[in-house]
Amino acid sequence: MKKIYFLMVCLGMLFSCKHNSKDNRIEETNNQQTQEIKVIQSNFSKIQDLLDTKSDTIYITNYWATWCPPCVKEIPDFVKLQNQYKNKKVKFIFVSIDETEDQAKLQSFVKENKMKNVYNISREELLSNIGSISTDLVGGIPVTIIQKGDKREGFLGNISNEFVIEKIQQYSK
Q1: Angle in degrees, CA 89, 48, 56, rounded to 5
Q2: β-strand partners of 114
Q3: Sign of torsion over alpha carbons 137, 70, 160, 125
Q4: What count of other Cβ atoms lies within 10 Å of the Cβ of residue 126?
Q5: Is 138 exposed, middle or buried (0-12, 13-18, 19+ CB in 10 A)?
Q6: Are 14 and 78 in contact (CB under 8 A)?
Q7: CA 133 to mean position of chain CA atoms
Q8: Among candidate residues 38, 93, 87, the one with its CA nearest the CA of residue 60
Q9: Which tens digits make up the pLDDT trace of 110-164?
Q10: What is the pLDDT of residues 78-115, one digit of tens each?
């Protein structure tokens, strides 16, 4: 019942509510020396292009929005993990679906949470394309994709740090 309620809330929020990379590597979007926060405007296919499926790096991509309470709740935990694994072959990518009118709120949230590797795509981009990863992911956010090479899993709803760490350990073998 909880899952159905969560899905309904996320669906309600989801429906109510150009990336210029020189190469396919993840661009660090938070320069630690200047504390400049940068959210890169992009689209779904370019986000997928960032994932090097031939490398042994584990990619954790989180689709979220500032207007989504479950999303906002899990971001600080993801940032802690991002910092914990910063010198490992684990990369976190945050993909916001905040609309144009919410960009100031997005920038503020990203800065406040010291987020790195933050991209922004339209809600329509996500809705039109997330089913290509898994039909189980259609219908709400947050969505988290964990991938290494050709192995990929997607999760709809909040996931715990313990779960992510467990998955990182599984993918590291």
Answers
A1: 25
A2: none
A3: positive
A4: 23
A5: middle
A6: no
A7: 14
A8: 93
A9: 999 999 999 999 999 998 888 888 888 888 899 999 999 989 999 999 999 999 9
A10: 999 999 999 999 999 999 999 988 889 999 999 999 99
**CA end-to-end distance (rounded Å), the chain:** 35
Phi-psi region of 33 (alpha: psi -120 to 50; beta: other; left: phi over 0): alpha
Q: Residue 14's closest CA among 117, 118, 116, 157?
A: 157
Comparing CA positions, the residue from 123, 113, 122 lying closest to residue 92 is 113
Supply φ then ψ for residue 153, to 5 degrees. -130, 145
Q: Cα–Cα distances in Å, from 37 out to 30, 82, 106, 115?
A: 5, 16, 10, 8
What contacts 97, CB < 8 A, 6 or more positions away? 63, 64, 65, 120, 121, 122, 123, 125, 126, 141
Token duo for residue 37: 């926060």
Nearest alpha carbon to residue 93 among 134, 57, 137, 136? 57
Task: Find residue 91's DSSP bridge partners.
Answer: 59
